[in-house]
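Revision sheet: structure tokens.
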Amino acid sequence: MASATSHPGSRPGRSDDTATLATQLAGLRIPAESAPHERTMIAFPCRSDLWRGRLKDGQLAWSHIARTIAEFEPVSMLANTRDLELAAEFAAHPNIEIVEIPLDDSWLRDCAPIYVTSGPGVSPARRVALDFRFNGWGEKYLPFADDDLVPTRWAERRNEERLVVDMVLEGGSITVDGDGTLITTEQCLMNPNRNPHMSRAHIESVLGAALGLQRVVWLPVSIDDRDTDGHIDLVAMFIEPGRVLWQGCDDPDDPEFARLALSRRCLDGAIDAKGRAIQVVDVPVLPYCEVDGERFPVPYCNLYLCNGGVIVPVTGHPADTDMLAIIADAWPDRRVVGVPGDIVAYGGGGPHCTTQQIPLATS
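Predicted:
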């Protein structure tokens, strides 16, 4: 169920006109994250009630990620009015701009616009900011109205073309190959707290029309996290068409062991949009951290690809070096950089969850 508009500020009612959406976006598709970026978006943490006394730690962790990415490409850090000076201090870097936009939380992967672009060599180049609905991960965290309006306010600020897609979708719930294939989980997209009126086939049709897809690969589950209901970006990332980096677990006593093994079996050999059998590259160790007496998984695969770099969460686990080597082999033309993952995991995610890429218009 989708509707589309290019009028900033409007949020139209529901419509069944998916065909209109496909027509308006004809010739555009969502590029792979590995495609060239114009910049990265990230937000300055602001939701003190969720940080349980560790808001400053979260702000410092996000700022560290922003400065790391800024060594590879420009970064726009969004911040509330009250936080502008602190964000500028914590994230000080010549390649980082601080942008005043109202926020409820700090997970731009899930509420920032998702871009579709024209293909290489297309003239004139076109890039559209897709404005999917955001409902606080199934209305778990209130309020979320400002986060839901991030795409509108961002597009207005940049005078960009924007299209509303009247479907709840978080960017962390999908990974794409840029060649017509998307991977997601039933655990998240079929959860009744997102789009209870939509069938699996209906979801596929809207994703296909909006993102220029020909194939959706459904996996049963991801990590059993309490916040996102199983985002795929906790466990999988396309390396290139036909190859996926997969977060494994080598501890049979870990409750995630069986879950991850189940979805891996479903992924290995699945057919993509071009008829290729998907090959899986395993990152076999799932590390954990402990913060304030609580234990959190820190999946290496919740990494972020930027121009020339791979930003990976690490915990000081004995396997860090070996797992980073696997990731470096997957992207041999990029520099792998580890960033501390404990505080970000405590907040609810990893580097990929904190960021959203803005691709070049012809990527």
